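User: For my dataset I need records formatted as: sequence, then structure tokens, nothing else. Please produce one.
Assistant:
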Amino acid sequence: MLKTREEKERLEEQILAPYGLRSRDSIGRQHVEPDDPFRTAFERDRDRVIHCGAFRRLEYKTQVFVNHEGDYYRTRLTHTMEVAQIARSVASALGLNETFVEALSLAHDLGHTPFGHAGGEALHEMMRDQGGFEHNLHGVRIVDHLERRYPGFPGLNLTAELREAIVKHPVPPDRHPVREARPDLRPLLETQVVDVCDRIAYNNHDIDDGVTSGLIDLEDLRRNVALVAEAHGFVCESRPVETGDSLLLFETVNRMIKMSIADLIETSNSRLEAAGIASSAEARTCPEALIGFSPEMAARQRELHECLFQTMYRHPRVVRMAEKAKRFVREIFREYVRHPGQLERVDGQRIEDEGVEQVVCDHIARLTDREAQDEYKKLFHPFERI
């Protein structure tokens, strides 16, 4: 049966909770466009994100391991897809707008640099005199300005709600890029869902990559992290396996994700019911976040993250990769700022209007891991073909 946009909007009224975000209530877009006859505003946002260049480039950008370390490890793109899957499940259970949650999940990491957080830290250092670099703010810059796919306007012309949600973290009003979305208010419930599900995804899936790579040991995690111990014990009791069984890791991680999601849904639902929230707008004025873990699960998640931080993210191999990545970014940045004529496909007027540092920052942030490595070779290796 054919469903028009209007029919989908009426269906939202039937399936969403009172506090779920309605497509028809969107503030709108920066540049006025006719409504799509078959897609809601947030379906259109989601599709524009999927088809933009910055989204495709996530396939070759680091999550933890630099892309050339192995084809198995997660990239920004596979992480993004995992966040979308988890967040949609939570949104559906809570009666929130699943399409908006999917669009935000797919867009939330668009502003990341090559080499993950190491690349972002190096760019922040290089841009300190221009206000620094923050990947969420850069994500809005991408969807508002840097993507060029439509003749009538720069960027993707996304809804104000999604543009604000990409920022995600609290930003001072004088730096907020989406002023019409009221940065003084608490994030939308859907935005809160994606933020928590992002943490579920990277905490749990980094265990998979960490154990598979040999950086961390599942037995060590079981001894030191309560959440791992409980999940591991459940798996062993329900399906006895040898410690060395490769399925043990996957089943343990899967159980941890299920436990985290169940706690998040049950706790969030209880908070929403207790607060008596009657609309999406009302949820934005609550004194505290309504989407989150129980105190017990929150403590377990912190313990897991701290253990991963100490044993995996500070592992000599990871630190070595990160420091090498920072050197790449710093040296490429300095060279292009000194000699911007080496930049290809950059309009000189942009440099005059925005400053050479901003143009170079945009260029480097766009690169994939592989492109950044190739660019470094072209700039500094004397026998590399250019």
